[in-house]
Amino acid sequence: MVEALEERIQRDARFAADLGHELRSPLTTLVASVQIIQRRRDDLPERTRRAVDLVSTELDRFQRTLEDLSSWAGSTPASAARSSRASTRASWSG
Length: 94
What we know:
The protein is mainly alpha-helical. The protein has one domain (2-93): Helix Hairpins (Orthogonal Bundle), CATH 1.10.287. The protein is built from three helices and no strands. The chain is rod-shaped.
């Protein structure tokens, strides 16, 4: 039972890490694009400025969520166990 739970935690952590990795590139592209638009914010119509502000706010929220996901994936018991095993192997080989 404990092994099954540990395996599930490891799978979930791998999934979260993979998901975070896959989402990071398109998110970075979107954030950079919005930043370019924001540099010309004063030239935009009011309605477009509001839309850009909304997109920017949501991208900030999405970035925080992705950071939380990455932190969780890196701080699960499964990742701690992997880190501990890697550290132990390094000390034995060094």
